[in-house]
Write a sequence for this structure.
């Protein structure tokens, strides 16, 4: 079944998640959709599976234009989506999950369904018992269950959104074998991923998306460098780092490790000096935010120590880190940083030095006005946080930082900002560095990482797979590491 | 006040008046009669002149617990908590006050002071229990509160038919009346206790000040609106949640004290009068503003005291007052939802325009 998307537009408020996407998937192909997080892949797939309706654009299936108002419409048209976290009902049994989405409201023939389930499982080499509760299944098995369920419902286009997250290597090869078999039977498979290697292994064709647009298409195999270039673009010139003398250690991690999940495989040690900038690269969910939370005391490591300016604060409460002038600014400005409904003045009162019980509103408003001027926030002292634009929210967050900051941990300092605000943010951060603050920031923007970092840590699958000197590396090297490959491995493979 | 705000305040009142008029016409009555009867039965006709001091006193003594509970709920609502446990907190306040009234002998002013403090402590304990279940046990405050409401109710019933049973009679109609020495001092000929009214007014003023001018109130608001952000700012969020439950519980406990020592003069099974649940509705209608709580509570107090007169005078069922309350609250919720929808739609249009 061939599938065509024409000029799909979808925006959320001011964010253009899909900005005129045109894409064709031929019958019986494995089509990769590659792109960074936030590139708009998931939005596009949600449009295609009826979760979102597009603002404009057409979806054409086998030459016929179709309208998808709900996931129900999509599956009726033969489009099935396997979500990143399989949508299963944990307390239910395998068979109950299997029949849940079946059409019709009243008649339920479990026995007939079970026979069909077993046939499908046999055909694709899956084996699980129909009566096991789904919570006992591994993530990989839950995926298998979803796949046979979608096939049973008549899916002829199968969408898989980052399906290899959280499954074992064994299950991955099984999944890939299944997908290849399905494609050979004439199924169109769309494989959404940020992992270069997997797309290269599995797919016959790949479309690369960046910032809501299609930036390239290629038949596979193709050299990975080309894919990296499509994903991240060519680097523009890199500014000279004005040399800031490094001072004492502000953040010292000694062999820290979590108990399970991300960052549990190998211990991490890092020493960040006063005036140093560390960039963190990696696809979202590779362990960066766990790492930053370990650095600021929101999580305690199972092993190892965390010291701030020489004081061992391992296992201490987040507020002790805060008192030691460590500040964490997560990516969600309005979710984890600002408070909806409170004014700019109230934000400054909450984070200010004045702790008297009765608030002096006159003085508070005066101070707010000064800070609004100093930080160029477009808003008044009575503006609420949510009424500010993203750039002004970031300005407000920076204005709320205390003066003598030792360590600043930041996620995506300039995500979603226009160029002017982004430059301004870095002016502020570099001024902080000049004053001796150690900065650790995670970013998906390789230019930003290369331009401002002294060192770059690359995270992949819950561990650090590379520590690079920012002055001696380039976009290609980081891009490959982010995709889980290294230049060395590449050379070895091609020789 | 902007237009949306006025709409949300006016809409429920218009809807409720409209529905009541329709209901009354359907019941074959002149719509004006019941309103007059409620006013006459609660504060007299013309208001505060023609009626008896007894009715006015009753109305005020119903106003006191509703206003106190509402003041407390403003605190928990601002902290982002649905304190459904307020009923139990009122009941435990009444039980603690009753204990002092029955068991302690002291000069009257001291005894009354002790009873009020005991009531506050009883309510606070019950409130903190909800808070601890929430912060340490991960039990949603709605379910924890509801459970503790039933526990409190069972304790009252047990006390009334058990250890505090009236001598010689096994009855659920209540305990023996408290000694006169323990009753709240009232104005002659009515139950109106200036002390209770003063405490309720102070509580409303206190809550207004708390959120208007204090750092504690601002931090509570921050915790209620966004716990993650508040935590990242260094606010001990759990401590503030417990603080909110403690304040609300104490005010509810005093409401219970007023019920026991100022209105019923004994412990009865329905000692809370459901005023805790009513207060939730009052606070929603008042949109969390202490200033609006005072008149809205008074309106509900009038309906509560004057409503039963409807059946005697017009042959309408006494529960009409309850129907009226229900319609009012539902339309208020509708108004709030509508306002939220309008705001959201406006925000979306604006962002659409600015991006386009």
């Amino acid at each position: 079944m061939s599938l065509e998307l024409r000029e799909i537009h979808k925006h959320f408020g001011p964010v253009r998640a899909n900005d005129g996407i045109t894409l064709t998937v031929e019958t019986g192909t494995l089509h990769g959709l590659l792109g960074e997080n936030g590139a708009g892949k998931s939005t596009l797939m949600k449009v295609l599976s009826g979760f979102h309706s597009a603002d404009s654009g057409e979806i054409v299936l086998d030459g016929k234009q179709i309208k998808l108002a709900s996931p129900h419409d999509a599956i009726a048209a033969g489009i099935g989506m396997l979500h990143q976290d399989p949508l299963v009902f944990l307390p239910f049994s395998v068979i109950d999950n299997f029949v849940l989405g079946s059409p019709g409201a009243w008649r339920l023939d479990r026995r007939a369904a079970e026979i069909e389930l077993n046939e499908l499982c046999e055909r694709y080499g899956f084996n699980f018992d129909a009566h096991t509760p789904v919570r006992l299944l591994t993530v990989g098995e839950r995926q298998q269950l979803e796949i046979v369920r979608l096939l049973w419902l008549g899916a002829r286009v199968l969408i898989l959104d980052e399906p290899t997250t959280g499954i074992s290597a064994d299950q991955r090869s099984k999944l890939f074998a299944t997908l290849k078999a399905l494609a050979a039977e004439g199924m169109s498979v769309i494989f959404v991923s940020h992992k270069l290697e997997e797309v290269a292994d599995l797919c016959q064709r790949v479309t690369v998306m960046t910032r809501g647009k299609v930036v390239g298409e290629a038949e596979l195999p193709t050299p990975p460098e080309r894919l990296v270039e499509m994903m991240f673009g060519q680097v523009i010139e890199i500014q000279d780092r004005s040399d800031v003398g490094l001072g004492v250690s502000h953040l010292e991690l000694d062999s820290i490790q979590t108990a399970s999940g991300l960052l549990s495989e190998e211990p991490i040690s890092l020493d960040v000096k006063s005036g140093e900038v560390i960039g963190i690269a990696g696809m979202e969910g590779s362990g960066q935010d766990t790492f930053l939370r370990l650095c600021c005391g929101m999580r305690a490591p199972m092993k190892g120590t965390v010291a701030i300016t020489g004081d061992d604060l391992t296992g201490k409460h987040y507020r002790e880190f805060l008192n030691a002038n460590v500040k964490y600014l997560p990516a969600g400005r309005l979710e984890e940083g600002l408070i909806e409904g409170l004014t700019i003045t109230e934000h400054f009162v909450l984070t200010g030095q004045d702790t008297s019980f009765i608030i002096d509103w006159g003085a508070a408003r005066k101070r707010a006005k000064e800070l609004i001027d100093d930080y160029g926030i477009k808003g008044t002292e009575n503006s609420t946080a949510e009424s500010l634009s993203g750039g002004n929210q970031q300005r407000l967050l920076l204005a709320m930082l205390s003066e003598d900051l030792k360590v600043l941990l930041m996620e995506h300092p300039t995500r979603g900002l226009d160029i002017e605000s982004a430059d301004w943010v870095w002016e502020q951060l570099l001024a902080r560095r000049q004053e001796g603050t150690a900065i650790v920031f995670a970013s998906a923007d390789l230019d930003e990482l290369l331009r401002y970092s002294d060192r770059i840590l690359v995270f992949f699958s819950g561990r650090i797979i590379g520590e690079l000197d920012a002055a001696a590396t380039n976009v290609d090297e980081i891009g490959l590491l982010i995709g889980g490959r290294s230049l060395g491995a590449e050379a070895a493979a091609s020789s | 006040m902007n237009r949306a705000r006025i709409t949300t305040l006016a809409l429920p009142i218009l809807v409720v008046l409209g529905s009541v008029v329709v209901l009354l016409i359907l019941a074959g009555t002149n719509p004006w009669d019941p309103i007059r009867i409620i006013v006459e039965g609660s504060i007299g006709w013309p208001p505060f002149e023609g009626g008896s001091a007894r009715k006015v006193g009753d109305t005020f003594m119903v106003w006191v617990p509703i206003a106190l509970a509402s003041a407390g709920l403003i605190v928990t609502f601002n902290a982002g908590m649905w304190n459904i446990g307020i009923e139990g907190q009122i009941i435990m306040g009444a039980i603690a006050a009753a204990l002092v009234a029955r068991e302690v002998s002291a000069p009257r002013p001291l005894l009354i002071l002790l009873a009020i403090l005991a009531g506050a402590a009883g309510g606070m304990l019950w409130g903190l229990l909800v808070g601890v279940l929430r912060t340490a046990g991960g039990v949603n405050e709605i379910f924890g509160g509801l459970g503790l409401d039933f526990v409190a109710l069972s304790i009252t019933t047990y006390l009334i038919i058990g250890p505090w049973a009236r001598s010689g009679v096994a009855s659920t109609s209540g305990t023996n009346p408290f000694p006169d020495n323990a009753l709240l001092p009232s104005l002659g000929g009515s139950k109106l206790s200036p002390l209770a009214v003063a405490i309720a007014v102070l509580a409303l003023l206190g809550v207004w000040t708390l959120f208007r001018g204090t750092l504690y109130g601002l931090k509570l608001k921050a915790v209620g609106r966004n716990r993650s952000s508040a935590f990242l700012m260094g606010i001990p969020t759990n401590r503030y949640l417990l603080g909110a439950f403690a304040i609300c519980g104490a005010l509810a406990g005093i409401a219970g004290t007023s019920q026991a020592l100022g209105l019923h003069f004994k412990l009865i099974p329905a000692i809370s009068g459901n005023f805790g649940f009513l207060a939730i509705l009052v606070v929603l209608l008042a949109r969390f503003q202490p200033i609006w709580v005072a008149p809205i509570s008074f309106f509900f107090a009038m309906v509560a005291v004057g409503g039963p007169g409807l059946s005697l005078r017009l042959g309408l069922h006494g529960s009409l007052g309850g129907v009226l309350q229900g319609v009012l609250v539902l339309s208020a919720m509708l108004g709030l939802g509508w306002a939220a929808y309008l705001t959201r739609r406006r925000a979306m249009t604006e962002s659409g325009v600015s991006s386009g």
